[in-house]
Amino acid sequence: MEPTQLTRELAAARDALLQVRLALDVERERGITLTFRDPLTGLPNRMLLEEHLALALARARRAGTSIAVLHLDVDAFRLVNDSLGHLAGDRLLSNLASRLGEATRSTDLLSRPGADEYVLLIADIEADEHRVVEEAARRLIDALDAPFTIDGAEFQVECSIGVSLYPRDASDAPELLAHADSAMYRAKTVARGGWALYTAAAEIDDPRARLSMSTRLRRALVRQEFVLHYQPIFEVARGALIGVEALLRWQDPDRGLIPPGDFIPLAEETGLIEQIGDWVVGAVCEQQVDWASRGLHPQISFNVSPRQLRRLDFSDRVAGHVRRTGADPTRLTAELTESATMEDPVECETILRDLHAHGLRLALDDFGSGYSSLSRLREMPVGTLKIDRAFMREVPGNREAAAIVTAILRLSRALGRVAIAEGVETEAQHQFLADEGCPLAQGFLLARPLPARGVEELLALTF
Ligand code: C2E
Ligand code: CA
Ligand code: CA
Fold it and tell me: What is the model's pLDDT at position 431?
């Protein structure tokens, strides 16, 4: 080969290599941007916020400085969404983000960890943190003074801000974020349109009892004290066992088996539910694989708390568990409460679509108790409606409750959804469901929640 030709080919090869590298860099950049930034506003998402907070905490511990976390929640955001639709809601959110951005100093980090919430992180505060917080909160609140114009309509938007401080209120990132969040709820009730500092005493009557309970819950996770029981779900007409609902219990070494109603509210409030819920998903996946390996294939439902739905990475985490365990996602059903789903529709729809795209089935829990927009329901990839137990309790005796159940059954048929009646305790209720053509039911009359072993015995009888 001619030397000049060789050089040319080499140069061409090098160029090609460069192109590939460039393309790879761009891909990587894009990947990083996607995982760390909220696509709607371009602001850092929860993951990036947590990363910054961890670094800020490390610096603060070394330098003896303080950190403030300001959790900002937009009041009445739902109104815009409901009256003008999601696109308008999205536009409002991104306009809001730019106004808040302008009101933020360049050294502070403004992020968007959830649908209509923003978190401002102020690190490296050397002195007078109250003044720093006061000024920052003022700037954010003032930034929303002027109305927003969306689709020609003017909107006055208010926000409530909750603040927690390191080291005053908490020593680690999850707790700081959780405290800012709970301070925000207090701001909503006592200082709407204003801001509130976290105060432990205002939280409950006996803060000491609470602390020990949340410490124990945290420990329960580490010590793997949670267990799942499974309540069978049956076909009403033929009695076949077609699925189970995973229900969480806490096996406390001191107090025995504790029902979810006794600890989930606190776990919700402290944010621990995110880790607990994550454990539930992992455990359900493992159970599915274990049962499948023995030829048992029930549909397995698990409950998702509203708070989990506020995590942008929720569906990714679920998909991660599915991949890790090799579970069949089509055998898994995520149960979301009707009210949680309708509360944060923008964020929620993305999560629902993602879960659906990963192959999971979706169910609306406690249906009938919340307020549902039928048009939205029609668009949602939700295959199952679970009729709220409160209605079943009064069926068939109470005519109104019976009418509601019948209406939900008709609605679900019209929309091509499957209905499950919960809390079936009596023969009369079961007969009513059979007469009304309800496809599926669960309840103490049919079977109580059982440990996995118990379900296996039942399945062996029916499969
Ligand atoms: P849910 O999702 O509505 O679950 C059904 C509840 O009804 C269960 O209570 C079940 O034991 C109970 N139940 C079933 N049949 C009957 C019946 O015939 N009569 C009566 N009176 N009750 C019946 P459980 O296990 O105490 O769970 C209560 C709630 O705790 C659940 O309500 C759900 O909201 C929540 N929960 C349970 N497990 C989890 C979980 O893993 N994650 C989250 N976030 N929440 C969970
Ligand atoms: Ca449920
Ligand atoms: Ca339910």
Answer: 97
Return the residue matching tokens 């990083």.
32
The strand ranges marked E within 201-353 are: 226-235, 241-252, 256-258, 299-304, 332-337
Ligand nearest to the CA of 305: 1
**What SS3 string covers 386-420?**
EECHHHHHCCCCCHHHHHHHHHHHHHHHHCCCEEE
Give the separation between CA 311 and CA 315, rounded to whole angstroms: 9
Q: Considering only CA atoms, give the Rg of the chain.
A: 26
- The model scores a pTM over 0.85: no
pLDDT at 339: 78
Q: Low-confidence residues of the chain, pLDDT below 50?
A: 1, 17-18, 22, 24, 201-205
Burial of 230 (0-12, 13-18, 19+ CB in 10 A): buried
In terms of Cα–Cα distance, which of 79, 76, 308, 271 is closest to 183? Answer: 271
- pLDDT value for 207: 55
Q: Which tokens belong to 437?
A: 């053509």
Closest residue by Cα to residue 337 from 313, 361, 312, 372: 372
Q: Does the CB atom of residue 425 touch ligand 1 within 6 A?
A: yes
Task: For 75-129, give the DSSP string.
Answer: ETHHHHHHHH-HHHHHHHHHHHHHHHHHTS-TTSEEEEEETTEEEEEEEEE-S-H
Q: What is the pLDDT of residues 290-314, one digit of tens each?
A: 999 999 999 999 999 988 988 888 9
Size of the chain, expressed as the number of residues it contains: 463
* pLDDT one-digit tens code per residue, 87-104: 888 888 888 899 999 999
Nearest Cα to 37, choosing from 17, 52, 22, 24? 52
Question: Tokens for 117?
Answer: 């919430």
Query: Which of 229, 245, 247, 388 has most ligand 1 atoms within 8 Å of CB, for mutation?
Result: 247
Quick one: pLDDT at residue 5?
A: 61
Amino acid at 190: V
Contact 447 CB / ligand 1 (< 6 Å): no
Protein residue whose Cα sits closest to atom 11 of ligand 1:
449
CB 155 within 8 A of CB 147: yes
Strand partners, 334: 302, 362
